[in-house]
Design brief:
The structure is a single chain. This protein is mainly alpha-helical and about 625 residues long. It folds into 5 domains: about 70 residues, no CATH class; about 90 residues, no CATH class; about 100 residues; about 100 residues; about 220 residues, no CATH class. Helices cover about 55% and strands about 5% of the residues. The chain has 30 helices and 6 strands. The strands form 2 sheets. The chain has a 4-stranded mixed sheet. It has a two-stranded antiparallel sheet with strand order 1-2. A hairpin with a 2-residue loop joins β4 and β5. α13 runs parallel beside α15 and α26 runs parallel beside α28. It is globular. The termini are far apart.
Length: about 625
């Protein structure tokens, strides 16, 4: 009996010692070694991996030391996690293992789970957040999730916008918390960031990663302290991907100006810009290439695009001289004196305006006079310019320089397919950006920006009028989408060919599911072959039939609010509501569509389709309004 008790006591002691050793290893060395092994097996070092349960075996020999035991244990766990990820997918939620591309994606997923689930307790993959949000109200829990990493607030909000739940999130927060979150001034002392420096930290960190440079923590803090005072930086509007891209550009340029990087690294960074999906990647890439001073010529829209990009290059223009010049050039299509048309004047004057914008107001007039009378050469004027061209440019700039900003003229363009603007509501209602992002998970050839898809759909709805005689897209489509889409038929056809039919099939399936789930869709919204044929688009494009099917499906969904005309054919709807000439006026960041009235406008107005439209962040303007005028068309 004594022997048995002694044996049992030794067994308990061995078990106790082993448990103590495992506990010691788990607390001291295992987490770091496990993180290293997992990172080595995954392509993205920023991924968040949540493990609920994982059974692994670790064979030990010769009584290993704590270090060897910890490393063997970590390796076995990492192998198990890697195998589970391969089994369930590299970005998916399963019963035992969850993988998120980065912390912002994980936090956004937690918020979506709270918004869509009525469960009393959070899912297991909330990890350290589970205990914090348990028992809290929805608004309190949402705030706690944002507080978990205040540097990720803007990326998280951008992810929510991409998932189409941003408005629901703000509603759940309540008016007071939403105002605090949306207000830059209120956020200065709030829980979302201790001070302005912390709110700008994510952009500087992103710029350092973008430029692929090494900075010590001390270097980063020094740059953060100097950046706001050096460039008078404002916190961007996180709802605008363009504004977020501009903030990254400002940070990158400051890093270069501080001597931490050079222009060659800026050029190389342009090729890495697609990594940052929470900003407008096209705008970011173009801005990084501005320093090369590439000047596009020939096409009017290309010149304007280059001019606008140049204005981003740290040009301070407080009285909006450059904007007034650009607006005047773009507005006037007639000859502007001495036989110089708008296109030629833009080519001649764009570098001039950039130089003038850098001069104090009191020096501008003297510089213009000196150039006009030939006593001085104004920097930026192209060599070989004739005396008549010189006088014409200077005369125009001189007149505009003295015009008050309040009298900024509108840019008004005659458009062959202005009526297609009413279909933007269909793209906003379906949240095209989120739909493309969802389809892109299984169809990676789809672009990260929905501009190409939007351009193809607008061309299908607008028909032949969407393409001009020279192959350029109609001004209506160019103005509605800005720089987010191709600018001519050749570019669009090439972009669509790269995407491919299989990817469009995936996109069509996602849209079909979303349209079918909307309660507002009329029962008779199914489309037939005749509807698809009516949306074949301009023949020069040769649109994939799947694109025509998507366009017909969205048109049918859009017509679900036209009481009494829900089941109308695509051809009839296009003829009587969409395909018409008109004008589009631009003033600052707002568009006004002026259309000749049609009888169907009564139903369009009743459905809210002629109400002011506030777009999603990927569109380049703040508001779209409609006017009906018998003098147009």
């Amino acid at each position: 009996m004594t022997t048995m008790q002694s044996t049992g006591g030794r067994a308990r002691q061995v078990h106790h010692d082993l448990a103590a050793r495992i506990d010691r290893i788990a607390q001291r060395g295992l987490p770091e070694r496990l993180a290293k092994h997992v990172a080595d097996r995954m392509s993205g070092g920023d991924a968040v991996v949540m493990v609920r349960e994982l059974k692994v075996r670790c064979r030990l020999v010769n009584q290993p030391s704590d270090i060897k035991l910890s490393d063997a244990w970590a390796k076995s766990l990492a192998d198990g996690i890697s195998g589970a990820i391969e089994k369930h997918g590299s970005s998916a939620i399963s019963d035992d293992v969850c993988v998120f591309s980065d912390r912002a994606e994980w936090l956004a997923a937690c918020i979506c789970a709270l918004l869509t689930s009525a469960a009393a307790s959070p899912p297991w993959w909330f990890g350290p957040l589970a205990g914090a949000v348990a028992g809290k109200s929805t608004a309190e829990a949402l705030l706690l999730i944002l507080e978990y990493d205040s540097s990720k607030v803007m990326p998280v909000l951008a992810r929510l916008d991409g998932k189409g739940v941003l408005e629901r999130f703000l509603d759940a927060l309540g008016p007071a918390a939403s105002r605090e979150l949306l207000s830059s001034e209120a956020r200065a002392g709030s829980k979302f960031g201790a001070d302005r420096r912390n709110r700008l930290r994510p952009f500087l960190a992103a710029a350092i990663e973008l430029l692929d440079i090494s900075c010590t923590p001390g270097d980063v803090e020094a740059l953060l302290a100097a950046w706001p005072t050096h460039a008078n930086v404002d916190e961007p509007d996180w709802r605008s991907r363009s504004a977020l891209a501009d903030a990254m550009l400002d940070a990158s340029r400051f890093v270069v100006s501080a001597g931490r990087a050079d222009h060659n690294q800026m050029t190389a960074a342009a090729e890495r810009s697609s990594r940052f999906q929470w900003v407008d990647t096209d705008r970011l890439r173009q801005g990084l290439l501005v320093h090369e001073e590439r000047r596009e010529t020939g096409d009017l829209s290309s010149i304007i695009k280059a001019f606008q990009s140049s204005l981003d290059d740290s040009v301070r223009d407080p009285d909006r001289l450059a904007l007034r010049v650009l607006s005047r050039f773009a507005r006037d299509n007639s000859d502007l004196g001495e036989g110089q048309n708008a296109r030629t004047l833009i080519q001649l004057a764009a570098p001039l305006v950039l130089h003038l914008a850098r001069l104090p107001p009191q020096k501008r007039s003297s510089a213009l006079r000196a150039c006009a009378n030939g006593s001085a050469h104004l920097q930026g004027l192209e060599p070989g310019t004739t005396e008549k061209q010189r006088a014409s440019v200077v005369s125009l700039l001189e007149a505009i320089a003295g015009e008050p900003a309040q009298r900024l003229p509108q840019l008004v363009s005659e458009c062959g397919c202005a009526g297609v603007a009413v279909m933007l509501r269909a793209l906003v209602d379906i949240n095209l950006s989120a739909v493309v992002a969802t389809a892109r998970l299984t169809a990676p050839s789809l672009p990260d920006n929905p501009g190409i898809v939007a351009t193809a759909l607008l061309c299908a709805w607008a028909g032949p009028a969407s393409i001009g005689p020279d192959g350029t897209l109609d001004d209506a489509i160019l103005m509605l989408l800005g720089n987010h889409g191709p600018r001519n038929a050749g570019e669009l056809s090439a972009a669509l060919a790269e995407i491919g039919t299989a990817a469009f099939d995936t996109l069509a399936d996602v849209i079909d599911r979303k349209v079918t789930s909307k309660k507002s869709v009329a029962a008779g919204s199914e489309v037939g072959q005749a509807d698809i044929d009516a949306l074949a688009g301009p023949s020069i494009l040769g649109l994939d039939p799947v694109i025509s099917r998507i366009a017909a499906r969205l048109l049918a969904s859009w017509s679900g609010w036209l009481q009494g005309f829900e089941g109308s054919s695509s051809a009839w709807l296009l003829e009587n509501a969409v395909r018409r000439r008109g004008q589009i006026a631009v003033e600052a960041d707002r568009l006004s569509v002026i259309l000749p009235p049609l009888p169907m406008d009564i139903l369009l107005r009743r459905a809210g389709y002629l109400d002011p439209l506030v777009p999603h962040g990927w569109l380049p303007w703040r508001q779209l309004t409609f006017q009906l005028d018998n003098g147009t068309g």
